[in-house]
User: Which sequence fits this backbone?
């Protein structure tokens, strides 16, 4: 990619496994950089599991040096305890890039999936297949990684839209 490319990390938060995917975008072309998943030990107390997620993401951010981050918004499911725990994991997933000075964009699940399979209700298998077509070098071992790459791609497509430009101007940012 040329010197105008921006590196973006997409994060798919989860307490058991948080997926991450890093891409580069020059506005037109996308390049795969890396992806993976951070797992927490389900036998640990919640606080230690959250620390594992935070430290894992912080390490990824230091290693790959993205300039922007994107995360999927939380959906509310029927199990209030599970939703609360997901919210806590999501908090760690937002804190790690924020502590490294990255702006964190948030997208609802149907917006994330729309640019990838072509509609807002793509199944995980469709998302994985489309990412494989869009980014043949992308290697991912889990749905969490594929979803994280879809989040990064979504942000690459939306980051220059009018609402994002207005938000950057409000904060005094030019890039």
Assistant:
């Amino acid at each position: 990619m040329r010197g105008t490319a921006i590196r973006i990390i997409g994060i798919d938060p989860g307490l058991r496994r948080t997926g991450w995917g890093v891409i580069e975008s020059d506005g037109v072309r996308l390049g795969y950089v890396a992806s993976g998943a951070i797992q927490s030990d389900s036998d640990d107390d919640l606080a230690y599991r959250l620390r594992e997620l935070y430290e894992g993401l912080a390490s990824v951010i230091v290693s790959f040096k993205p300039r922007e981050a994107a995360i999927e918004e939380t959906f509310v499911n029927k199990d209030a305890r599970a939703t609360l725990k997901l919210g806590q994991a999501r908090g760690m997933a937002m804190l790690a890039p924020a502590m490294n000075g990255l702006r964190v964009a948030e997208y609802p699940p149907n917006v994330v999936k729309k640019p990838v399979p072509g509609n807002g209700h793509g199944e995980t298998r469709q998302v994985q297949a489309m990412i494989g077509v869009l980014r043949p070098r992308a290697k991912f071992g889990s749905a969490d990684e594929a979803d994280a790459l879809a989040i990064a791609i979504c942000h690459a497509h939306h980051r220059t839209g009018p609402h994002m430009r207005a938000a950057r101007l409000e904060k005094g940012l030019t890039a």
